[in-house]
Amino acid sequence: MRQLKRIVDTTGAEIVLSSSWRQFEGARQKLANALTKYGLKFTRWTSTLDLDGSRAGQILAFVEEAGRQLHSWAVLDDEDVTCGRGGMMMEVV
Length: 93
What we know:
α2 (25-36) links the parallel β1 (15-17) and β2 (42-45). The chain has helices at residues 2-11, 25-36, 55-66, and strands spanning 15-17, 42-45. The longest helix is centred in the N-terminal third of the chain and has 12 residues, at 25-36. It contains three helices and two strands; from the N terminus they run αβαβα. It has 93 residues and is mainly α. It is 37% helix and 8% strand. It is globular, with a radius of gyration of 13 Å.
């Protein structure tokens, strides 16, 4: 959490939830409580629609919908999200 806080503080990033926790109100609240302890929060999450059957597809759909609101974005995830719709690759750092 400290590293996430450092990233958010340094970049001004917004946390957008894409984990499976986003599907359940209780899980979202548990995460919100944990983030609050570090002065962090999330207010949005990606769609839970199946789309192409991948979390990467859901993330890319969010990015496309946000459009001009996003100048840059990054994904921090414990799952492999490097391959999205149509084989589009995201850069892994």
